[in-house]
Amino acid sequence: MSTAPMPQFPTGFRWGVSTSAHQIEGATTADGRGPSIWDTFARSPGRISDGSSGEVTCDHYHRHTEDVALLTGLGVDAYRFSIAWPRIQPTGAGPVNPTGLDFYDRLVDELLAAGVDPVATLYHWDLPQPLEDAGGWLHRDTAARFAEYAEKTAARLGDRVRLWITLNEPFIHMSLGYGMGTHAPGRALLFDAFPVAHHQLLGHGLAVAALRTHTTSPVAVANNYSPVRVLGDSDADRAAAAAYQALHNRLFTDPLLGHGYPEIPGRDPSVIRTGDLETIAAPIDVLGVNYYNPTGVRAAKAGSPLPFDLVALDGYPRTAFDWPVAPDGLRELLGWLRDTYGDALPPIEITESGCAYDDAPDADGQVADPERIAYLDGHLRAVRAALDDGVDVRGYFVWSLLDNWEWAEGFTKRFGLVHVDYATQTRTPKSSYTWLRDVIAASRPGSAR
To answer: Per UniProt, where does substrate bind (predicted)?
Structure first.
């Protein structure tokens, strides 16, 4: 961590934290909520590393007032949360479940009363199970159902949510959920998962139009990005890196910004209908950037089903997820987006950035996490450097406010600024929470530095 003072950020720069519904809410059978693909996936033996589920997690559904108080204490401008589609439409279609929607109505009002902007993500991977039974994102109708859900949700909340995000990390959802099968719904289709990409993007475009009928707030999508580092100097290594770049970083950005689809293996043009690309390229106001680490790539070994091999990068500290801590990658990524998309690129907000470490309370009940402080320090400085390079970055959201249920890793990875004892639901702010609070306070106009 640098010992120099944190550089000043522009007036109006948005400081926030992020969570997602299935990872913190619990109450999976409360208020008429229907099952999601993650409820089903967690019941399948061997799918979750510790055998846990999202049934309780952080019990945010019942403790959201306590968590809003944590946001107030942190001093953030905004809270990015996700809305559980199965809580709004238990079957993924038809009338809304009013009790489920009431929960988010209360949450939004409590956030506004606390002076925190509500930032709502409509889809953070928790597809209603009945839609998956009908084909999930492989089925074009799911895009239409998503737009219907967006319209019904915005009809209730559109006057108060300050930023809408349609999809979270559609690449990760496609690749791990439908490509490799390590996430819900557990399908291992490899490149035959391309329809999942197209239908998520189509659903996004249809949802943008639906949202704009009920809100004047900006609309965004949150993509996961990973700078590609070529490991090797052969033409095959460079071709492998280009293939991975197209798949991870361009597949869900090129069409959003009017460039159509890049060339990737398995792209099936038959699922693309007349007018789809125009719908997908509906103007957005913000591009959400989720950044965790760069990816090392080299040519695939003989017989590999993929055209590249992913290789660990040496020379970096590593998180508990064994991800390299590389703030330089964030500055590199932001510059790449600017240079690649030019005037088509909307303003950027970093909608997720964070790290997992094995945090635990000491004998006095305190949770020191100096590695997370160093991580955030480095990545915030990378954002400031990108601003100096002329990239239009408007905000930074830390992943995550709370330790939570980390998908297929269960409760084994802790990303939070706040430690959660899952047995007692006790929340304990970590030292990173205090550090970030002070950084945010120092960024306010007129603060003493």
So the answer is: 23, 124, 168, 292, 399, 406-407
- Given a contact cutoff of 8 angstroms between Cβ atoms, the answer to whether 96 and 152 are in contact is yes
Place of tokens 């070529």: 230
pLDDT tens per residue, range 336-373 = 999 999 999 999 999 999 999 999 999 999 999 999 99
Asked whether the beta carbons of 192 and 258 are under 8 A apart, the reply is no
**DSSP per-residue letters across 400-440:** -SB----GGGTTS----SEEEETTTTEEEE-HHHHHHHHHH
Cβ atoms of 53 and 408 closer than 8 Å: no
- CB count in 10 Å sphere of residue 364: 5
Cα gap 85→96, rounded to integer Å:
10
Condensed to tens digits (0 to 9), the pLDDT of residues 312-337 reads 999 999 999 999 999 999 999 999 99
Does 352 qualify as catalytic in the annotation?
A: yes
Residues 6+ apart with CB under 8 A from 273: none
pLDDT at residue number 448: 53
C-alpha count within 13 angstroms, C-beta hemisphere, residue 135? 12
Options 169, 332, 349, 371, the catalytic residue: 169
Give the pLDDT mean for 410-426: 98
**Rounded Cα–Cα distance for residues 316 and 48 (Å):** 28
Residue spans of the domains in the chain: they are 14-443
- Indicate whether this model's pTM tops 0.85: yes
Cα 357 from Cα 343, distance rounded (Å): 38
Assess whether 169 carries a catalytic annotation: yes
- Give the pLDDT band of residue 265 (cuts 50, 70, 90): confident
Which of the residues 332, 349, 352, 371 is marked catalytic?
Answer: 352
Binding residues for substrate: 23, 124, 168, 292, 399, 406-407
Can you tell me the distance from the alpha carbon of 60 to that of 66, in angstroms, rounded to the nearest whole number? 9
Cα–Cα distance list, 436 to 71, 144, 289, 296 (Å)? 11, 40, 20, 30
CATH code reported for the domain at 14-443: 3.20.20.80
Query: 33 near 27, Cβ under 8 Å?
Result: yes
d(CA 366, CA 360): 8
